[in-house]
């Protein structure tokens, strides 16, 4: 009997067909690398650090080799902002994706709405472990159910700051490699008291003071100690990045550093000037961000939550947030994000009521002082500690020096007695010392920014002066908020 023989070409074709399909089940069972679709996230947050004091933003004094290195490896955001230059409201915004009125925390030392959703809710639904080490300063717990990670001092006013220990961070990031993690490490430097780091590295008489600070010997001495805390903070950043590197997960992790609000020098924290609301932000995501790149795209703290959710593969349509994802900016696909950024300040409980609102288009800033007939007082900066000592002795030297130094007098007046409206060309006047409100060449942009701010206040359901009272703050602190904006679609 004649044996049938398969032609050589047919034999090889059949073999190739069998090999290809035999591998399909294996191929489809494989999951993409975590870094490709669901990156780990490490957020490192400084505390009360004016962005312009950092060398990566032109600061001429501080030494920050680790932040310099991080910026050289990642994407520097030149125009990142928070809505309220106070610790609790800005953190609630960052973690919830909602502006202060939207999440309920429009005052310092208060609380968000109990039904607020935040990073732990959104990312845990996507398979993440979500933890926080260091300073918490958000309430209530059900709105911000972070896993507590040990090792970093949660008390920002301890003197000195408790020694830090990386074992808790290491345990958290290495616990389960099958799950992506999101870890926030909220450092407490350079928040006052300025006692950490080596101030001898910064001789007071050799410092270049920013132009919004009065040049007195006590100011220089305080600024030296503040710079030492920035360097101490930078060393912690370096240790955290080294821990990530040793874990072998650096290439799979998006690192986001932010400097939080401005420092506790007059004109920064507790204000709506650019040095209060403008924050430092660097994002390093290996394989996604271009090393050493920078962007002028304007982003808000509220935009971080949707950005991380989109990066993790979540559905943005399911989020109830004010923020908008800027993932396309991180990927280098877009160079613009927001047309305007906003700010709000309620002074209670930091002092007598003094509500302020602001809007910026990245070039100009418009400020509206809702109580121009009142003096601005911030009790921590200008007052006494519980033991009767001056909290910030340099402020008294500003008062003393103002009688014979016109520049110092102008800075004191600028801080304590503010007009109903101000307009600054921040692009050429970054410390916003030259008010253009009555300049005829700037009336068009003034009217435009007035309208933008009016629209935002309506969208937020902001009652203005009525919001900044002791009664509304106490009600919010108890979780019994008096003002809640209606359900709305955030302005795009």
Shape: globular
Written as H for each helix and E for each strand, in order along the chain, the element string is HHEHEHHHEEHEHEHEEEHHEEEHHHEHH
**Helix share, percent:** 25-40%
SS-based structural class?
alpha/beta
The first-level CATH class name of the largest domain: Alpha Beta
Keyword list:
alpha/beta, Alkaline Phosphatase, subunit A, nine-stranded mixed sheet, four-stranded antiparallel sheet, 32% helix, globular, 492 residues
Write a structural description.
Helix 8 (217-246) runs antiparallel to helix 13. The chain has helices spanning 8-29, 34-37, 65-73, 87-96, 100-103, 119-124, 167-174, 217-246, 274-277, 304-311, 327-330, 379-382, 393-401, 406-416, 443-460, 470-477; strands at residues 40-45, 75-81, 129-134, 147-149, 181-186, 253-258, 278-284, 293-295, 299-300, 341-345, 356-360, 364-369, 421-425. The protein has 492 residues and is of the alpha/beta class. Strands 1, 2, 3, 4, 5, 6, 7, 8 and 9 form a nine-stranded mixed beta sheet that branches. Strands 10-11-12-13 form a four-stranded antiparallel beta sheet, covered by helices on one side. It is built from 16 helices and 13 strands.
